[in-house]
Write a structure and sequence with these properties.
- This protein is low in regular secondary structure and about 210 residues long.
- About 15% of the residues lie in helices and about 10% in strands.
- It has 3 helices and 6 strands; from the N terminus they run αβαβαββββ.
């Protein structure tokens, strides 16, 4: 369904140059191939399996912006920003090693970011095969660096007070992207860095990962 990005390479390179609309279409198609229930609904799209790549919008589209996430379904989907953040923090024991004290998605305190992330100083200005850097405590790799990752949420200020399973505001102009990429300074790869992009945007350092529970 998806062509390789501008860097080509092997199947182990991260997918990039895909917009947010592409990612939710991919999730639904992957769900169908794995015998799971598609998670997302978009007005006017009834046959996800037969949806052609060139039928997915590459400019702002109201119907796709209003996509609905059916939380009852068991298929693949994008992480929420909070899910992404907790996964990137990765600390197995929040008492002895709280993940929020980390600079980036690492497993060793005060480690060098070059051990965990591809960013402007070590990437050679290209993407790299996934899994080439060290993992955090959860075994997750490349959550800092390589490519930015789309999240489900609309971008907005965090609400005040304690939140449970926060999924962002109900509407907006931009979707959340996280993690930094091969083209960015190390400071963009930190866990604290939030960024955003219009859901129609495609860029050579912008990709995604999926989750399924």
């Amino acid at each position: 369904m998806f062509p390789r990005g501008v860097f080509g390479g092997t199947d182990r390179r991260p997918v990039e140059t895909v917009n947010w609309y592409h990612t939710i279409a991919f999730c639904n198609k992957l769900s169908l191939t794995k015998g799971k229930e598609p998670v997302y609904r978009v007005n006017g799209v009834g046959n996800w399996e037969g949806l052609a790549y060139n039928a997915i919008p590459t400019s702002s589209d109201k119907d796709w912006d209003n996509a609905v996430w059916d939380t009852v379904k068991n298929g693949f989907r994008l992480p929420t920003e909070m899910e992404w953040t907790w996964a990137a923090m990765g600390a197995a024991d929040s008492t002895n090693d709280p993940g929020y004290t980390k600079a980036f998605a690492e497993s060793t305190k005060n480690a060098g970011i070059g051990d965990y992330a591809w960013y402007d100083a070590n990437s050679g200005y290209k993407t790299h095969e996934v899994g080439g850097k060290a993992a955090n405590e959860l075994g997750l790799r490349d959550m800092s660096g390589n490519v930015w990752e789309w999240c489900w949420d609309w971008y907005g200020d965090y609400p005040a007070g304690e939140q449970t399973d926060y999924t962002g505001p109900n509407q907006g102009l931009y979707r959340v992207i996280r993690g930094g990429g091969w083209f960015n300074f190390a400071s963009y790869c930190t866990l604290a860095t939030r960024n955003y992009a219009g859901p129609e945007l495609r860029n050579y350092d912008l990709g995604f990962r999926v989750v399924c529970f």
